[in-house]
Specification:
Length: 306
């Protein structure tokens, strides 16, 4: 009798668990759909004609498809391609440079035998709460470091993030000290141990921070607006900001006033903005599949061990 009651209880619990999982799956599907639908709408509007948008508004089912927005922007000359090249260079170099600095700094702070660890940790945490502000940063970068109108002005100010250092420091602390001590016994130096032992064991955490850093560099538009005086050195995000706020770039891309007037009259507005958004977002979306495995693993391991 008792076994029968236990079986009925277990069956009821399983039924409730299945229903609860079903509800969770539906909620997760709705949340994923809410994230994906805006991206799909942006792409659909970008390939819709300006006339259909004017008549019917934004719609998932356009009445007339057109690639005129993309053709229009690629007619502007080499500016978009040049801005893409600058952004790709800044993203790759900045991400690598930032990871090198962040991983070395975090590893040093993760070592309990480093006597200045508390001092540098305090300095790092202090910068998260207080900073000099925009004007002093601008003066240091332009007058002291002389980075004005230089591509390095897009890289160096974002090369070190205190939050990422804390995340990697916590990740490095999860590596057993016995492994590091065994490497020392085998004659490995500090840098060799860091490169050959610590970094391979920390791939998920490094890939996660690398993805965040790469997205930050790719999406940054403010530094380009702040430090770049020459429009030819604009990254793609700053160029997008410039295009959306004025038609001044057309004047610089046009041969004469007549060409400018014709381009301004035929310039796509709604579909053009969406086309620019697609051009900017598409490359970074293509990078996610290569980092997804490490990204999920890094979050899982960090949540369990951190």
């Amino acid at each position: 009798m008792r076994k029968k009651e236990e079986a009925m209880y277990e069956s009821a619990v399983n039924n409730i668990s299945k229903r609860f999982n079903g509800v969770l799956n539906i909620l997760m599907f709705c949340m994923a759909l809410a994230c994906v639908l805006p991206v799909i709408l942006v792409f659909i509007v970008s390939v819709s004609s300006e006339q259909s948008i004017f008549q019917n508004g934004y719609s998932f089912f356009p009445t007339e498809l057109s690639l005129e927005a993309y053709r229009f922007f690629f007619k502007l000359g080499d500016q978009i391609i040049r801005s893409y090249g600058i952004t790709i260079f800044v993203t790759i170099v900045g991400t690598v440079f930032s990871l090198v600095i962040t991983t070395m700094f975090a590893y040093v702070l993760s070592r309990s035998d480093y006597k200045y660890g508390k001092v540098f940790t305090f300095i790092m945490l202090f910068t998260m709460l207080f900073n000099g502000g925009l004007v002093p940063s601008y003066m240091v970068n332009t007058q002291v470091l002389n980075l004005g109108n230089s591509v390095w002005a897009l890289i160096l100010p974002m090369s070190l993030n205190a939050f990422y250092v804390i995340v990697l420091r916590t990740f490095f602390k999860s590596i057993p000290m016995e492994i590091i001590e065994a490497a020392k016994i085998d004659g490995s130096g500090e840098f060799s141990t860091f490169v050959k032992i610590v970094l391979p064991l920390s791939k998920p955490g490094i890939a996660t921070i690398g993805l965040f850093t790469m997205i930050a560099y790719w999406n940054d538009w403010f530094l380009g607006m702040l430090y770049m005086m020459d429009q030819e050195k604009y990254p793609i995000q700053t160029l997008l900001w410039s295009m959306q706020n004025s038609l001044e770039f057309m004047k610089q891309s046009s041969v004469n006033a007549l060409e400018y007037a014709e381009m301004a009259q035929n310039a796509p507005t709604d579909s053009g903005r969406m086309a620019l958004t697609v051009l900017v977002v598409a490359p970074i979306l293509l990078a996610y599949p290569f980092f997804q495995k490490y990204f999920v693993k890094g979050l899982t391991v960090g949540g369990v061990k951190g």
